[in-house]
Amino acid sequence: MPQRRIPLQTGKFYHVYNRGNNRQNIFFDRENYVYFLRLLREHLITNAVDIVAYCLMPNHYHFLVYLRDETLSTAMKSLSLSYTKAINKRLNRSGVLFQGRFQSIHISQPGYLVNLTRYIHLNPVKAGLVQQPEEWEFSSYLEYAELRAGTLPKTEYIKMQIEEESAYQQFLADHNLPDSPGFKRLLLDD
User: Can you tell me whether residue 127 is helix, strand or coil?
Assistant: First the structure.
């Protein structure tokens, strides 16, 4: 595969995402989601990144990450290959699962981070999979809302930008509001 035109920089935040080849599902049952999260911890969190927020959807995923070192591309390749091999074996299929390499967007403005977590956590609601973000098990919203004591997301990156603990939940509660100005919506389901 060709090299990225813009290299990823350590000490920066990135929105990392990908979807299934031909927009097909990449997760087929609960065990797939759980296994992917286990691989995420094994391949990414060990060295490359802090996961700030995440959401796994049936045919795509979103991560907000803080890069700790320069190995994200290698780690993501390893994660994708490991997961694809496992799914192919389990479902007796062959070929690619993801639509190419992962995509990444550098997040340079701190205020954008909070809006991006909102977008990530509301993805299942906007897709009509659930009515409220806390109903979706495969998202870091449950840690942000203190409904689960998970260790995957590093919530302090966002919580230190919010004055009151309940402010984030209120921010998400009115999910019919348009996103703040300048917030680029990345609707991968379209």
Answer: coil
Domains of the chain listed by start with CATH number: 13-173 (3.30.70.1290)
Summarised one tens digit per residue, pLDDT across range 1-16 is 444 456 788 999 999 9
Chain segment 116-134, per-residue pLDDT in tens: 998 999 999 999 999 999 9
Q: What's the predicted TM-score (pTM) here?
A: 0.86
Q: What is the DSSP letter of 98?
A: B
- CA-based angle 176:28:134, to the nearest 5? 35
Longest CA span, the chain: 50
Kindly state the helix (H) or strand (E) to which residue 105 belongs, with its residue range: strand 103-107
Q: Read off the amino acid at residue 163.
A: E
| CA-to-CA separations, 22 to 58, 60, 114, 130, 153, in angstroms, rounded | 13, 11, 30, 24, 29
Cβ-based neighbour number of residue 37 at 10 Å: 16
